[in-house]
Specification:
Length: 844
């Protein structure tokens, strides 16, 4: 075991001894490498789920579409008051009490589904007791009552018929406090939020003689696992203790993908079980995040079988195995506790790319982590700030079948097994079987020595009178119907009640023609992903982008929290920046987004869905998704920034050229010394980049998942849009847009979107990246696991203090490049889905 203090890999300018410019030098290096290595790619391990990880680009039928709702053809204008605010208010924030009833159970539920026939009558909120006859007494069989609440539809169409698309059937199935006895499995569908009362979480309990081997099927059976989006399960207790402990039984099948939420739940299984599993993913999926759970008993707490995942804030108690990584190309476990297990984490399947374990601990555990030693990128393991108070010699890392531990005891800093790129090391990297490095975490990112995290709020401490339903403010009508311009009245209500009330947006699509300003003191809660959607000429100019939603102004400090919302566009709007955050938090977590997502195209209610099957240059549908400006500090958890690669609500082609994914310029030097956290995020299919860290400072990112636009690359059949086209005439220098000068002019494989573009940044702590290329020019056939379908993935220029752990790429020749000729190739780092690097450490 070696100890290395990491002070840098120089990423400064190209040496003056070189006779060519930096751009020319990099281009010659990258092209030469591509030619030299094009004939050799390492074999990719075959796993039982490999077939599940081919992208599903089929449409989901929406057979009851309301064709009359077309916001791009003109909007209705709601009546507005003569002033911008209802009346002056002076508040010190909503007042917390000890309410006896959960506010959400009491508030007016007037949400709608605008884009289906008779959608104004669609039942969004379903109370299983008051509306469907469930008893919740622990004796009555409540199976049918709960399932009927899940299935309820409209005009003879129920939610199991696969006729309402993904976005047309939002349903919040609510369980008041009680014990619900279940005799057979419950089945969820896309668009379902299955939730209980957090004040006294209800229990769903398998009855004796339960007919089946799964309590809850979270995956919609009508859709493949990789298109199971927009499903939530929260504030519930699950109990399988009536089922024989040795019977094979799963509490929840969670074979789902992005924009899903599993949080604030307890799983109770029999102790000393040989058959029960809490969370399983038998059909795979493309997930991002789950967290803040308690899992007790069973043989396995979580059986992970997914492309990538972040598990945060889960307490495992008395399972034989806490987490079994049956398959995961890119996984991260953060702030988890394990107690009384034979094995806390089993990654011995040889079907893991990399695993990062942060800020976690084990107590009375036989083996903390059981793994395999590959000698290459596969099964890379990174431990950081890990405490192991195990049994006997505290076996922290064990190789499967070996009686001698690879590592014992605690890990105070960072311990790595896998391929590493470090200052002064080999330019082709070094494989280490267990080395300790120093990761100098910024104090701005920490709480009690750990990276700061915070659970999604339920606001359960506030009574109903501390909430405002934005559709129920007298004199200021807000419709959320996808037709009416709600801009002025939303802004009036937000400005009036900032720092006074929590604003509830019932389900619907809130059409806006100008910026919605979210002032300091705001707390916003959506319902099954309530949408704010832009339309109109204010968002047309790509050289002067306008935010659709702007959170605070530069220099603001305070509270701004957003939960369960969706940001989208109703038209092709090349000047629309969907979300801009300027405000800095008073305290970590005061400025935050949870379970809030972006969607451009791919759904009813937008011209982008139906008019973007041709050349991408004709569908620059939005300027960018997320912009964290230099003055901002924010905590973002469970966010999917999706430019549609396929149609959720039909079968329309989707060649969409949104300019930018996430632009992170947050800087502790500009925001008063605050950090920024990205926890379980994914940005996909944006044209220039997915993540851009530009002049950023003190940022933590745990789990970054991305895919390149499917239309990019060799074989492009819809026109000659090679990056930075079709945005080349409108590159915005202050935004740090890449110009692709590192590529030859006609090099289509090089001129594809950067997954991560890092420029002039410092103190970035980036853990668990999964960057996947599936297509070249919408053609999958020649882009298999062994091919190099994209030249470059990550670029680091003029930056320092960059600490990257668990880099995973698929079909990318160069995993990391830099402006001094830094080159990390897939060929030198075989493993996972193509290439895996355990540690890439750069300091200028």
């Amino acid at each position: 075991m070696q100890s290395i203090s990491l002070i840098l890999l120089a990423l400064a300018s190209v040496s003056s001894a070189r006779s060519v410019s930096g751009g020319e030098y990099r281009r010659s290096i990258l092209n030469a490498t591509a030619m030299a290595n094009s004939s050799f790619y390492p074999p990719i391990p075959v796993n039982k789920n490999s077939a599940d990880f081919v992208p599903d680009v089929t449409g989901i039928p929406l057979l009851s579409k309301n064709e009359s709702v077309q916001p791009w053809n003109g909007v209705h204008h709601a009546p507005t008051a003569h002033t911008n605010a209802l009346f002056a208010r002076s508040c010190s924030g909503p007042v917390a009490t000890t309410p006896g009833t959960f506010w959400y159970e009491q508030i007016t539920h007037n949400g709608i589904s605008p884009f289906i026939n008779d959608g104004a009558s669609w039942p969004v909120f379903r109370n299983v007791m008051t509306g469907y006859g469930a008893a919740g007494d622990g004796v009555t069989d409540d199976t049918d009552s709960i399932q009927n609440a899940i299935l309820a539809g409209i005009d003879g169409i129920t939610r199991d018929q696969n006729k309402l698309g993904t976005t047309g059937q939002p349903a919040v199935v609510y369980l008041p406090s009680g014990v619900y006895s279940i005799s057979k499995p419950l089945q969820l569908y896309v668009g379902t939020v299955f939730m209980g009362d957090p004040l006294s979480p209800p229990t769903i309990k398998a009855a004796p003689g339960f007919n089946g081997n799964t309590l809850i099927y979270g995956k919609d059976p009508n859709q493949g696992s990789t298109i199971n989006f927009y499903i939530g399960v929260k504030n519930l207790v699950f109990d399988s203790t009536n089922i024989d402990k040795d019977t094979t039984f799963t509490i929840i099948d969670w074979s789902v993908s992005q924009a899903t939420q599993l949080t604030n739940c307890v799983f109770n299984m029999p102790s000393f079980s040989s058959g029960h599993t809490g969370i399983a993913m038998p059909e795979g999926g493309s997930g991002t995040y789950l967290g803040d759970l308690q899992i007790n008993g069973g043989v396995v707490g979580i059986d992970m079988s997914n492309q990538q995942y972040m598990i945060k804030g889960v307490a495992f108690q008395s399972s034989t195995t806490g987490i079994k990584l049956s398959h995961c190309f890119d996984c991260i476990i953060q702030d988890c506790t394990f107690q009384d297990h034979s094995i806390a984490i089993d990654m011995s399947s040889n079907s893991v790319g990399s695993l990062v374990v942060l800020d976690s601990s084990a107590q009375d555990v036989g083996t903390f982590i059981e793994t395999v030693v590959t000698g290459n990128g596969g099964s890379s393991l990174i431990l950081e700030n890990v405490q192991n108070n195990g049994i006997g010699s505290a076996q922290t890392v064990m190789a499967s079948g070996n009686s001698n531990p690879i590592l014992s005891g605690n890990v105070a800093d960072t311990w790595v097994m896998g391929n590493t790129y470090t200052p002064g090391g080999s330019p082709t990297g070094n494989y280490v079987g267990g080395a300790t490095f120093t990761t100098p975490r910024s104090s701005n990112l920490l709480s009690n020595g750990k990276y700061f995290t915070i659970a999604p709020p339920t606001y359960e401490q506030y009574a109903l009178d501390q909430f405002i339903n934005i559709k129920s403010v007298s004199g200021f009508p807000v419709f959320g119907d996808g037709v009416t311009d709600d801009t002025a009245n939303i802004n009036s209500i937000l400005s009036t009640y900032a720092n006074c009330k929590i604003i509830f947006f019932p389900q619907g699509t809130y059409l806006v023609t100008n910026t919605i300003f979210v002032p300091a003191g705001s707390r916003i809660v959506g319902e099954a992903w309530s949408a704010i959607s832009a339309v109109g000429s204010n968002f047309y100019n790509p050289t002067s982008p306008v935010p659709m939603v702007q959170v605070g102004n530069a220099g603001d400090v305070g509270v701004a929290q957003i939960s369960d919302m969706l940001f989208t566009v109703a038209d092709v709007l090349q000047g629309c920046q969907l979300l801009e955050i300027n405000i800095a938090a008073s305290n970590p977590g005061d400025v935050a987004l949870w379970n809030s997502h972006f969607r451009v195209g791919g759904a009813a209610g937008s011209k982008v869905e139906t008019n973007c099957a041709g050349a991408p240059s004709s569908c620059k549908a939005a300027f960018g998704l997320l912009h964290l400006t230099s003055t901002s500090s924010a905590y973002i958890e469970d966010m999917w920034g999706w430019t549609a690669d396929h149609d959720l609500d039909s079968g329309n082609g989707q060649n969409i050229a949104v300019g930018r994914g996430a632009l992170i310029e947050s800087s502790s030097a500009s925001n008063g010394g605050q950090g920024t956290w990205l926890v379980g995020t994914a940005f996909e299919h944006n044209t220039l980049y997915q993540y851009n860290f530009h002049n950023a400072q003190d940022v933590y990112a745990g789990m970054q998942q991305s895919e390149t636009p499917y239309w990019q690359g060799p074989g492009l059949s819809t026109g000659d849009e090679l990056d930075p086209a079709p945005w080349a005439p409108a590159l915005v220098t202050p935004y740090g847009d890449p110009d692709y000068s590192n590529c030859g002019g006609a090099d289509a494989q090089c001129r594809m979107a950067w997954f991560e573009y890092i420029d002039s940044s410092t103190n970035l702590f980036l853990y668990a990246s999964g960057f996947w290329t599936f297509f070249n020019g919408n053609d999958l056939t020649n882009c298999n696991n062994n091919a190099a379908c994209q030249t470059n993935a990550i670029d680091i220029t003029s930056s320092s203090g960059i600490y990257m752990y668990g880099i995973n790429t698929k079909s990318n020749l160069n995993m990391v490049t830099g402006n001094n000729g830094l080159l990390v190739t897939m060929n030198n780092n075989p493993g996972g889905w193509g290439g895996v690097v355990a540690a890439m450490l750069a300091e200028e």
